Amino acid sequence: MHFKRSQRPISVWRPIETDTFLLGAPHYPEHVDESYLERDAERMAAAGFNVTRMAEFAWHIMEPREGQYDFSLFDRAIEVLGKHGISTMLCTPTATPPRWLTYHYPEVLRVDVNGRPASHGSRQHADTCSPVYRMHSRRITRAMAEHFASNPNVVGWQTDNELNTSTSLSYSEATRREFQIFLEQKYGQIEALNHAWGGDFWAGAYQNFDQVVLPFDMAPVSNSPGHVLDYHRFLAWATARFQSDQIEILRAVNPDWFIFHNIGKMVDIDFRGPFTRELDFMGYDFYPLLHDEMQRLGGPGLLQAQQLDTARGHSGNFIVPEQMSGMGSQPPFSTLTPEPGEMRRMAFSSVSRGADGLMFFRWRPAHFGAEIYWMGLLDHDDHPRRRYEEAMQFATEIKSIKQDLLGSHVRMDVGIAGGDFDNQEVHPTYPMGLPSPHEDALVLYAHCYRKGIAAGFIHPEDDLTPIKVFYVPHWLIWKDEWTGRVEEWVRSGGTLVLSARTGSRNADNHVIRDPAPGKSLSDLAGVTVEEFGRLAPINGDGLFPHTRDYGLNGRKSPAPTESSTRKYTLLFGNTEYTAANMYERLRLLDGAEAVGTWSNRFLESEPAISVRSIGKGRVFYIGTYLTDQLAEAFEAQILRPAGVTPLIQDLPEGVEVSVRENETNRLLFVLNTSAEERIIRSIPDGKVLVSDLRGEGSTVLPGYGCHVVALQA
Ligand code: GAL
Question: How many domains does the chain contain in total?
């Protein structure tokens, strides 16, 4: 395979520079006896796979006693696979240290909020902040790297496994000490920390860094938001440092290896920082049939698409090192099961939204341990059945489109601000029962997804040129340095939409002393916020606690009444809407005009939504939160005038659409995420690459059917 390390900075538009679509399955030779190895390799090759991933939980096999290494099982497995044309990606095994390590060095265990150390036999129980654990991590990484340095079948590495997915938190002694060192380096003087954390509120001031404590959730009332934000900044920094240790060793031993990490939950990772910059590309694991999340998001298609688009917004095109193939389960829960054709549909969805490689999790299910019902491509009885057949079909199809696909990015007309660590973390330090920026973003995202509008996530530091509309969902921390480049983009024709509370805190998490949205954005949007207050969410139970449902899925609670919720309404485009979550009282400055007005109670006739034209573009300010109904108006009043139209018209329910393109190629993916057939009347002509369309005029897309067509670029 040919892989080139990208010289381009992190960007949503950045593809992986390779000629190979990595395709395969995570493989656990340590779970079966060696008589399986040859047959496994033959079957992977017959399926059309070119790669496998191994060893992420096998430290105890590779280092059975401290300092004694034995890589022979993996040598043999890698060799057998190599003979069948299958390469291997290895993993540093640091998610599961051997028992001798946690026994002899118990200080490496994470400690929970009650002071209880984690137990052995689980995973991610070792504290990535611990200097002792970092020393062992470097040791096993070096031993593995040196052993496999010249093995031609080892092509790349995954660092650890889903860092922070099980937990990112630790309250161990080591964490506290490292936190203090981090803070001392950041602030230099304790007075600076006291200022940042608001030490004069509730006697939070310290005399020196040794006194600084970790912020427990309940202590017994909330901690300073500045303290909490810095704790999460520290966790993200320590996570990146832990990974850096490993990357440095792997790169020094063999610079030709590619290195990635497989992200699970996107927790306490700063995707624009060294964590991503030091990797060659990112991997994201997807399990789209987690029932509760599907419920919240109205189906597996939307759940998966938003995860994929969020991921791509963080770091550009990626691989999917794990994508569910069958039912998944651990003792407390299980997922739904992909129906025939659905696993392939999910794989195409991943590809359509930025995957340049994909592994079906997992090759076979384990017969023991905490995931015995996490099904693989094979079954427990070692028989390949429908999931294996489907993987084989996908392999043939991906081969046929690979040439046109690789090197392309995903088209995006509507960019939603995403991927900013501070803005993600600042919200939970003081949520006030409001939707997070991402939850609010999903209201607009879901609307675009259902309409077939190319929407995704992008950071303001990224190249905004290709997008037409940029929506900023309540980013509390807005850096002034972003304003200039965003303004330039607006002047050349972009439409910027700012929403309530944007820019109202500073980097220390203090409320700013100017009116929101702060000097530079006020000048840009022509508006200042004079007053703000909470409103009940649509269909929500009240202002507190945070309900995590914002009209995406129509909760069944009784409709709010005038007396229970104090309904506030606004007029936008001649229609009256009920406002949710927050109102703002706006004062318009020179050049701005109201396009939406409050229409009842004490705000009646005052501006609710403003617009200001600058150069060829426009800046809107929305003094409230989006609802499903307002998102409709958003499309009519903001997206359409900005030239945003659906990729295909009249998209039937359950069908999703996405485009991957570059200067020479343009692939349109039309995928049926539902089990029922759908009629699609308006697919543009082009060279058909993959198609399940049938019926008169080829308009019927069967349940889970896929259609990929190359359009004129
Ligand atoms: C992922 C993890 C895998 C496996 C899978 C199913 O989070 O990386 O090792 O556990 O989930 O639970």
Answer: 3
